[in-house]
From TrEMBL:
One of its GO terms (cellular component) is plasma membrane. The chain crosses the membrane at residues 31-52, 61-79, 85-108, 115-135, 141-167. The keyword Membrane applies. The keyword Glycosyltransferase does not apply. This is Uncharacterized membrane protein HdeD, DUF308 family.
Amino acid sequence: MALWFGWALGGVLMLIGGIFALLNPFGASLAAVTLAGWAFLLGGGLQLFAVFQSQGWGSRLWALVLAIALLWLGLSLLVHPLAGMITLSFVVAISFIASGIGKAMMAFSLVDRRAFWTFVLSGAISVLFGIYILATFQTSAATILGILLGVDLISTGITFCIFAYYLRDNPALKAQ
């Protein structure tokens, strides 16, 4: 199988997954919470392994605390996915607001540059999106993760497809 075809196939599969996620955002939100739960469990297991690789009691203690926290978080998301969905949706909203504030602060370090308004606009959009999620939390908490997952899958799928056709049209890139 040609390299470009693998990228194209991955892109098409992501596009299809993104469309399904947007058609059923609640189901996609549950899938995202489940995936996050398993990822935290895996991270906790790896961190538990790191406890035995660490040198000194201080680093072992911190590795153990982190392992327990990750394992607990992973199990919590898997055992209580609806509560996890609400919690993660709240974290996403707060993250949008914090990211927007950070972009706005960055903009003020670029006052005399052309990128100033780009950062201001991007920051404002992030803050407004976070506030919107919080303002409509009763209705958006169950679907926002699925919508974000769908949009991300579609944008990544498009990027992969474009890259695949770029690889196909530039065979010299295969050797690099």
